[in-house]
Structure to design on (221 residues):
């Protein structure tokens, strides 16, 4: 069965304290891995797509990387406005998109 | 562009009532989907559509119906609401050949 597991479930950081979120997956044929940001009471907002092992994408303080079995979302020198739930999802062949449960990130000033 | 819009934002139903959650997109996307989000679980696919007149079931389709008469609209119907359908519902769309999905703001549904 296809699975996407995110860890940790919750993460509390001090402003400026860098860290990483993990997304491990088991799918039969990976078409793409996606990272989304979700603020409370809102829909997920697209951040990155990664297609193949070794690929990296960056946006401001966020950097996403991909291996054959997992992806990391690295957050460098986070600010309070980076607080959100970060969702990972994988697309296998066809239309099926499988989401992880998410990591709740809180950054305190 | 308004993107993906959903109405209503909040809804309370009694067990057995029916209702329709509305979803519209103005990006001319062919693919549209409905998800539900429950605490501690990932978003789960209910139904999806690859174009007007074409729909298919996702992971958790029971108790829900969809239709796609236009490219823009993709309503989700609850036939006879049950407490287990208490959830936050998201509609999403994407363009053909792109895998990034764009989500609406969600509808929070409570069934008592």
């Amino acid at each position: 069965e296809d699975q996407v597991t995110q860890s940790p479930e919750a993460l509390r950081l001090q402003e400026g304290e860098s860290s990483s979120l993990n997304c491990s997956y088991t799918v039969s044929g990976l078409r793409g891995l996606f990272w989304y940001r979700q603020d409370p009471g809102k829909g997920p907002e697209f951040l990155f797509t990664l297609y193949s092992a070794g690929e990296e994408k960056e946006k401001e303080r966020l950097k996403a990387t991909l291996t054959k079995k997992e992806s990391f979302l690295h957050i460098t020198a986070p600010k309070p406005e980076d607080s959100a739930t970060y969702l990972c999802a994988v697309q296998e062949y066809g239309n099926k998109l499988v989401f992880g449960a998410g990591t709740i990130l809180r950054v305190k000033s | 562009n308004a993107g993906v819009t959903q109405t209503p934002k909040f809804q309370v139903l009694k067990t057995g009532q029916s209702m329709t959650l509305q979803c519209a997109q103005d990006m001319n996307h062919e693919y549209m989907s409905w998800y539900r989000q429950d605490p501690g679980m990932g978003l789960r696919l209910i139904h999806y559509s690859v174009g007007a007149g074409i729909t298919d079931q996702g992971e958790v389709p029971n108790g829900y119906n969809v239709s796609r008469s236009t490219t823009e609209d993709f309503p989700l119907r609850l036939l006879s609401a049950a407490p287990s359908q208490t959830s936050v519902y998201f509609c999403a769309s994407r363009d053909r050949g792109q895998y990034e999905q764009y989500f609406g703001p969600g509808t929070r549904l409570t069934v008592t």
Remarks:
- The first strand of chain B starts at residue 4 and ends at 7.
